[in-house]
């Protein structure tokens, strides 16, 4: 029952199928520094014990101590097979757990599965496929008589019912569209009520929403989500009892869905990382990124420059919304968080550039997480060999966006190509290497608190137009002429020498870009 309930994406039996019938009554984490406690029909989490000699040594000890199941992680199929043969000889079940699943997460999953097995629930709820939250929401809606939404503890809407004829209000509609509960004045009080009660709670209607029947979903004593049913006068007489019982069943669905999502997300993130860092063709195929099409890279970060609990609490939420926005437009993509930035690799089916699409997806993601985001877009990479260079370009673009607010929150490499070249040169060249004249001007400005460098930048930028320079600096044209003559006499400025003018302009721009 345990393996069937939790699912093969998290656990799989490594040895004789007959071991599936072994009973489990209690669970223990293995500690190599302590003797194994003697139990009856126990499950042992082999923390830190990989398939091979350590697991072969542990299995006989576990059998002697009364354990019927040992759970272990393994990346070596050959070593796992050898351990499975020993488990068969000992009459013990050896269960392999996916490397993307944490031990504590697995314990919550197993504990909730065993608790749910003894919980009473309606036949309608018990037939819902494990982890199918949308079907679960529909079953609860049908049993209680009200439109239902299932949330996690971050108020994200994980699933919602679609039973025909059931009424909804604006608050529910906004939650469905944004997959996030809208900010309402009564929300803090409502969540305190729901989280502090062990059973379903009735919440009154307000100016902004209809009444609700709600209940916290718990795994043991830990709250992992909540279920909300719209109360518009159509609820069944026993809706409170049904929802309370449904939450016991829903706990396993939430944990199973989370485990599956986390496992799949980790695998996908590893594949995106492999594409970005090594240009792996195999990982690209698994992501649906066909190398025969141009590839684009998007680098996204908070406008604050870092993720924090006050402004942008969850980069994973941005990944989810951004991926959803792209998928809604049939764009194949993969996202991963690396070093404080989100990277997305995508193929664009159209001959047009994906600039507007990315801008829309970044804005939508920022709105969903209620935070300001900025992004850099680079590409195309014609083949996986150049994907690393395109990622580096996306990094430079988002760095430029951070330093130049006038660019807006999203820029592409084409938008800022010239600025990128200057920025790259500024990282590699000193001003003195480009123009001795520029170095002397900048040093003199620093010593005398002068502003000669700005005068020359504006004058050179306006191609020697004295009138335009004067208007920009808000001085008289004669003042500009006088100051330029002073620069000629003091520093040897030669306006008739194009090479000197070119290098002076470049050096001053590089200095401005540091």
Question: Could you give the distance between the termini?
Answer: 63 Å
Low-confidence stretches: none
Helical percentage:
40-55%
Largest sheet: 5 strands, mixed
What radius of gyration results from the CA coordinates?
Answer: 31 Å
Shape: elongated
Strand content: 15-25%
Which class of secondary structure composition applies to the elements? Answer: alpha/beta
Spatial arrangement of strands, main beta sheet: 1-5-4-3-2
Rounded mean pLDDT is 83
What is the count of helical runs? 20
How many β-strand runs? 15
Overall description:
The protein has 514 residues and is of the alpha/beta class. It has 20 helices and 15 strands. It has helices at residues 2-6, 53-64, 77-90, 103-118, 123-126, 133-144, 170-178, 187-196, 239-278, 281-287, 315-327, 355-369, 387-403, 417-428, 431-434, 436-448, 452-461, 466-473, 477-491, 498-513, and strands at 11-13, 26-29, 42-50, 67-73, 93-97, 148-151, 157-160, 201-203, 211-219, 222-231, 295-302, 333-338, 341-347, 373-381, 410-412. Strands 1-5-4-3-2 form a five-stranded mixed sheet, covered by helices on one side. It has a five-stranded antiparallel sheet with strand order 7-6-10-9-8, sandwiched between helices. It has a five-stranded mixed sheet with strand order 12-13-11-14-15, sandwiched between helices. A hairpin with a 7-residue loop joins strand 8 and strand 9 (211-219). Helix 6 runs antiparallel to helix 9 (239-278) and helix 16 packs across helix 20. The longest helix has 40 residues, at 239-278. The N and C termini lie far apart (63 Å). The mean pLDDT is 83.
